[in-house]
Amino acid sequence: MWIGFIEFDILLGDVHSLKAKRSVIRPLVSDLRRRFEVSAAEVDNQDLHRRAVVGAGLVAADRQHVVDVLDRVERYVAVRPEVELLSARPRILSSED
C-alpha cells in the first residue's frame, strides 16, 4: 500500500477578508476532491486572509499511480489564476515504512 500527500503553501490575490478567502479556497478544495478523487482540506493558516496551506492525499496499491496523481494535482493548483503557488511539498510513504 502506498500513501501520498502534498501540501501547498498558497498566496491569495485580491483577498481582504476571511470570507473572501473561503470563496477562493472552498472551490479549490472541492475541485481537487472531484477531479482527482483525493482527500483535500485547508490544513493551516486558517486565520490569515491572504495565505493558506491546502493538503491533498490518497492511498493506492501502486506507487506510480500515487506519483502521477500528485503531479497532476500540483500542476492543476499551479495554473489556477486566483492563487499563487509559493511551494509544494509532496511526500510518498509505503506501508512497509
Outline the structure in words.
With 97 residues, the chain is an alpha+beta fold. It has helices spanning 18-36, 63-78; strands at residues 2-12, 39-44, 51-60, 83-94. A hairpin with a 6-residue loop joins strand 2 (39-44) and strand 3 (51-60). The longest helix has 19 residues, at 18-36. The N and C termini lie close together (10 Å). 20% of the residues are buried. The model has no long low-confidence stretch (mean pLDDT 92).
Q: Mean pLDDT, rounded to whole units?
A: 92
Beta fraction: 35-45%
State the share of residues found in helices, binned by percent: 25-40%
Helix-strand category: alpha+beta
Looking across the biggest beta sheet, what order are the strands in?
A: 2-3-1-4
Low-pLDDT runs of 5+ residues are none
**Count of individual beta strands:** 4
